[in-house]
Amino acid sequence: METLDGAMKIGRTKTEPIAAAALVVCFALVALLFFSRAAGSFFYAGYVSFNLEYYRTHFGLAAANGLLPYRDVPVEYPPLSAAWLWALAPFARSTASYLGAFSVGMTAFAFIALAGVMRIASLLKDDDNGKRDAAVCAVFTAGMIAVGPVGVVSLDYIPVALTAWAVYFLFRERGAVAYALLGAGVAAKGYPAVLFPLFCLYSWRTGRKPALIRGAAVFGAVCVLLYGIPFMLAPKGIASSFAFHAGRGVEKISVYGAALSIMHFLGARTPLARDVICWRPGEGAATDAAMRASTYVLAGLLVSAYARIFHTAAKFRGMFTKEREIGIVLSGCALLLTAFILGFKIASPQFLCWLLPFVAPLAAARPKQLALMVPLAAAGLCAQWIFPWHFQALTHGLSPSVTIVNVVKIAALATLFVMLWRLAGGDPAAQAAVIREHPE
After folding, report:
1. Helix (H, G, I), strand (E, B), or coil: what is residue 8?
2. Alpha-carbon Rg of the chain, whole angstroms?
3. Which pTM does this prediction carry?
4. What would you measure as the largest C-alpha separation in the chain, in angstroms?
5. Quick check: is 202 in a domain?
6. Which of 79, 100, 255, 414 has its CA 20 to 30 A from that of 343?
7. Residue 356 in contact with residue 330, Cβ under 8 Å?
8. Is residue 175 domain-resident?
9. Is residue 364 part of a domain?
10. Which of 65-69, 173-177, 263-267 has maximum average pLDDT?
11. Are 178 and 166 in contact (CB under 8 A)?
12. SS3 label, residue 185
């Protein structure tokens, strides 16, 4: 056991029977629900696999024929995700082989993330390792099931795994490794970039300013390297990848889509956008206004989250135990990502898995924090109800039932945002105790 600040002991996760059994049970449950219909069809990955057919025909076959990403084939994903798509070239000739290789690979990335989350949880709760790991496994797996099989037919568990281990190494004072993994996460999906300021804040608050400088340099170097290599090979290809996402319209299942749908049912003239899940730029005045507003709403939500976290850091500098510092960083990361998911104009259901490395250890650490899983699970189940089960209604115009469920999903995410806002502030009860111990 190692001791940090004399207040908390850190134990390595042991391969104890109860923890090993929990991992096996969790893996078996995910396999049962996602890869068979023995327990019903709601969670069956086969119904969302058309996403993978697009990957196979557009990228897998191109890779098998020796074509290069960005230069020969337009790719809308960052370099590490493109690398994964090209690595599956040997399986691209067969639809079944490709679907199996991709989904099993993403499941493996999810469990790599779970291993990192178990290590993070060991920093928050120093008790029986086996029971703690079993609790973390149960919470993470519940979250993974709530997010649904769409997560294992998408690319998001790659950055989830990288981010989980980045956070763990940050807390273990392995700054260069932590920042390198965070940079790799940015090169896999982009969204981990919003966590970079929190990594810097934690390094600064824990008195490791040289490590902060080195870490920031490593983060920048990894991002430049992983984006720079394909940029040198195909500068227009990388530029078009960014332009593709910048030019996308708002999705029907986003906050803005919910608002536009409600306006439509109240009598406003909103384009129906048939056969697509988003409104294209130029399709209507209201949809274009929503697209422009999305930038400001997203920025506002992120700025408010940063302000909350940095205010807590400034107000209680040097007053929290190491354990509580880690808890605030985890809740801050979850708060930022929830703000991003709420404010972004794209609302892909698998985005919810981004939250698992942060919400799962928080929920498993204390009984009252287990409530964090309720709105996350509710949002995930609503998203699954819409996609794939009511995808036809979504793409064939504007559906009242889809709109209602989408509003419930957004309300669940907003509830999670409020709960994380409180945690990122240090918890009022904990703040009062700290103030009593450190009167001004």
Report:
1. strand
2. 22
3. 0.91
4. 69
5. no
6. 79
7. no
8. no
9. yes
10. 65-69
11. yes
12. helix
